[in-house]
Amino acid sequence: MRWDLLFADLEAQLDAADVQADAHVLADLTRAEQATISLADRLRGSIEGRPVGVRLTDGSHVTGQVRAVGADWFLLGDGSRRHVVPLLAVMVLDGLTAHAVPGPSGSGAGRGLPSLLRALMRDRAVVRVRTPGGEVDGRVARVGKDHLDVMGTEGGARSSRVVPFAALVCVSEP
Q1: Cα separation of 43 and 64, whole Å?
Q2: How far apart are CA 155 and CA 152, in angstroms?
Q3: DSSP 105
Q4: What is the pTM of this model?
Q5: Which of 53, 83, 91 is nearest to 67 (CA)?
């Protein structure tokens, strides 16, 4: 009888140790999975959700619903205005959900910022390009590998400004 109690106690201790080990393994797997989630995946998880606040590298702030996410940019909708924000221009995000959605795979997956800017150029959309040095209003006239040309009219004269992608903070509807 005494041995039965001893073995029952040992079995209970082993079961408790197994449960604790399983909990540690599960926690490790959860941390490993979370380490594979990108900011773009988190933004995709917030599409059409509650408004998100974004503090940008120039100190400015934009707010809106996440409408689309590309490989290196996302689109915020703020009423009738839209803002294209390069991921590298984000300093802090407020209101982002914990939910993540992996990006698409296959051809055309994760279209980058140059593709989006070429679409704006093709549509002759009027844009406001924000950089740390100020804003440029006009139309996207050319999109290169690492820069874009914005054709504007200042004081009635046409002028072209070249903006390196590295300096882009936000491209908005004026």
Answers
A1: 12
A2: 10
A3: -
A4: 0.78
A5: 83
DSSP lists the bridge partners of residue 47 as 66
Tokens found for residue 19: 């449960």
Give the closest residue to 73 by CA, choosing from 118, 116, 42, 105.
116
d(CA 40, CA 20): 34
pLDDT in tens, 2-36: 777 767 777 887 777 777 776 665 655 555 555 66
Q: In percent, how much of the chain has pLDDT > 90?
A: 64
Residue type, 52: V
Task: Name every residue whose Cβ is closer than 8 Å to that of residue 72 and which is 6 or more positions away in sequence.
Answer: 40, 86, 87, 88, 112, 113
Give residue 138's identity as a one-letter amino acid code.
G
**What is the pLDDT at residue 15?**
78
- Taking alpha carbons only, the member of 68, 67, 152 closest to residue 115 is 68
